[in-house]
Design brief:
Layout: E1 10-16, E2 29-34, H1 40-48, E3 66-71, E4 75-79, H2 90-105, E5 112-118, H3 125-137, E6 141-146, H4 153-166, E7 174-175, H5 184-196
Parallel strand pairs: 2-4, 2-5, 5-6, 6-7
Antiparallel strand pairs: 1-3, 3-4
Length: 200
């Protein structure tokens, strides 16, 4: 498998409202999870190099389905619904949580989950709950800090170390900025190494 950090052809495949509707696929999968309004859609557009491929909105809680994207006919990226949206009803929150959990527990489970964290604030309680659940379920995950361009110098270094400590000191977050296209090559490289090479 190539270790190129450039993706040539990413296409939207379909959206599903239930893990049971997930299509049969031989492609290794990486799931993308994050708190509502963490910048998930913007990060995916920048990561894919396809402006507007993933719908973005200033209003949190817009991703309510499992959205599937095929990358170079080698990887399936699964965009999970954002969690922790305060204005969502209890029924909606329960439905979104169930959709995420049912997918991650299914035989079609992702080989890697990217856990997006807002660099300005660090991990929220809901982020840590997801990480605990992933650890208990034996699912590999990688922290990804979004909006890292919002902090500079010492403040940036301090926040990064705070995030490492909050995550148990085991994994270092990849710092990214969709606005400035920072960290995307490093993120693609991790995905390729963790997902593709594991399936060689």
């Amino acid at each position: 498998m190539t270790t190129s950090v450039h993706w040539q052809n990413t296409n939207f495949q379909l959206s599903v409202a239930d893990a049971k509707q997930f299509p049969d696929t031989h492609l290794p999968q990486v799931a993308v999870a994050g708190h509502s309004n963490v910048g998930k859609s913007s990060l995916l557009n920048t990561l894919f190099g396809r402006k507007g491929l993933v719908k973005t909105s200033k209003n949190p809680g817009c991703t309510r389905l499992l959205n599937l994207f095929e990358v170079d006919e080698k990887i399936l990226v699964v965009d999970l619904p954002g969690y922790g949206y305060a204005r969502a009803s209890k029924v909606e929150k329960y439905k979104w949580a169930g959709l995420i959990e049912n997918y991650l527990k299914s035989p079609k489970v992702a080989q890697l989950v990217l856990v997006l964290l807002d660099f300005r604030h660090g991990p929220k309680e809901s982020d840590l709950q997801l990480i605990d659940w992933l650890n208990e379920s034996g699912i590999r995950w990688q922290p990804v800090a979004t909006k890292s361009d919002k902090l500079k110098g010492n403040a940036k270094r301090k926040r990064k170390q705070e995030m490492i400590d909050a995550l148990g000191g085991m994994l270092e977050p990849i710092l990214t900025s969709s606005l400035k296209n920072e960290g995307m090559q490093a993120l693609r490289k991790v995905i390729i190494e963790e997902v593709l090479h594991t399936n060689d």
